[in-house]
Amino acid sequence: MSRPSDHLTTGYLLWRVTTRWRAAVDRAVAPLGLTHAQYSLLASLYGLSRTGARPSQRELADYTGLEPVYVSKLARALEQRGLLTRTDHPADPRAVQLRLTGEGTDVALRAIGVVRALHEELTAPIGGTQSRPNHELNHILRTLLGIPPATGTTDDNGREPMAQPPTLTGQDIGEAQGAVRGLLDRILADSGTTSTEYIALRVLAVRGPASSPAALHGLLAGQPQLGLDLPGAGELLAGLETKGLVSGSAPDGPGPTQLTSQGATLYAELADAVTAVTTRLYAEFDPADLETAHRVLEQVVERANRLRGEL
Asked: Would you place residue 51 in the very low, low, confident or very high pLDDT band (cuts 50, 70, 90)?
């Protein structure tokens, strides 16, 4: 004898799953002050922003599958909460460009974590998100929606993400450091001062006279970007003293090690030149991106030092 459930259509089952999923997401992100629709917009905007894109409202509507008018309504509400900004699009005066704020990025990341956990819970009966049945289901749904087969992972909305940016590596950090160091060398070229000498002058200018020359030698030798050992730090400071820029550089001297008036004047001139160029270097970056980069690099330094101690 057949049961009523034996005759459920694919469309009906998809509608039930979608309804259950939307309600579950609404409950899960409610503590963050979001609805499912708002989460979809924030998460999609975050995913696109990671690739460097600054989508318009229409582009985000196309990506999420939401109506442009609805995206505009959602964006206005999120803008009022300070989670994103809406500005004129530089390439199209008729379009509005969307960008997450720092708070918006934080809320988006927290919400994505919540929804990922919910996704695992939803797919648990078929083995979880990494199971073969889930990948097969994903492929079937893509076929029904006319979405090309995935070339990598899928996002939490079931959409194929834009090409993912490369993961940060030591090579990236090294290349960035080399580029900035090269820029510093170029700024200093006409002064006859090397970047290493400039950094030593900056240490003395910022910290003031070093009452213990030996401690100053140790400080400079402990700066990884300088690549100096204790003898090298001694040679650096001795060279600056020979130029008349520093006094009291001998590690066993009575101290203090300090800038001479000539050294202080030169450092002030060089610092002004460096500041003028580095201001241009960082001018086009989003402050939230710089804050994130600062946190990541701080953690890289901390973890690298810890791992070095464990090896």
From this structure: low
The confidence band for 150, taking pLDDT boundaries of 50, 70 and 90, is low
As its CATH architecture, domain 170-310 has Orthogonal Bundle (1.10)
- The tokens of 223 are what? 């700066």
What are the Cα distances from residue 245, in Å, to 21, 201, 239, 258, 260?
69, 8, 9, 9, 5
Distance (Å, whole) CA 227 – CA 221: 7
Which range (16-25, 144-153, 156-165, 269-278) has the least confidence?
A: 156-165
Task: Look at residue 61 and give its three-state secondary structure.
Answer: helix
| Integer CA distances (angstroms), 254 to 41, 126, 212, 219, 231, in order | 65, 75, 8, 18, 18
DSSP state of 129: T
Residue 159: pLDDT above 50? no
Q: What are the residue ranges spanned by the domains of the chain?
A: 10-145, 170-310
